[in-house]
Sequence to fold (105 residues):
Amino acid sequence: MPSDEEAQVLSQWSQELARALQILDLDVDQELVLDLARKSADSVIHAAAPVTAFMVGYAAGLEAGKGSRGSDVSPAVATNRAASVAFKLCSDRAEGKGSDPTTQS
Fold:
């Protein structure tokens, strides 16, 4: 969990990035994203954190996207759904249930 100062900097950065990307109505659940990044780094490798966050965001965007398969799911709901899948994979991996790509041919 970031300190108050770090949380403020992260919030400012998120707002600045959202403006630059022209997604002004985006509300980022920073705690969810940070927790997801932490879990994936701990259960896979450190580099899995940004990749997981990107893939969850991408999946959520597809589900919540305007006109995407006629979806009317809110971005928050879509993000929570996608994050739940990623959290489950992280948990499975931590419990030894996940696949280990280094042992696959």
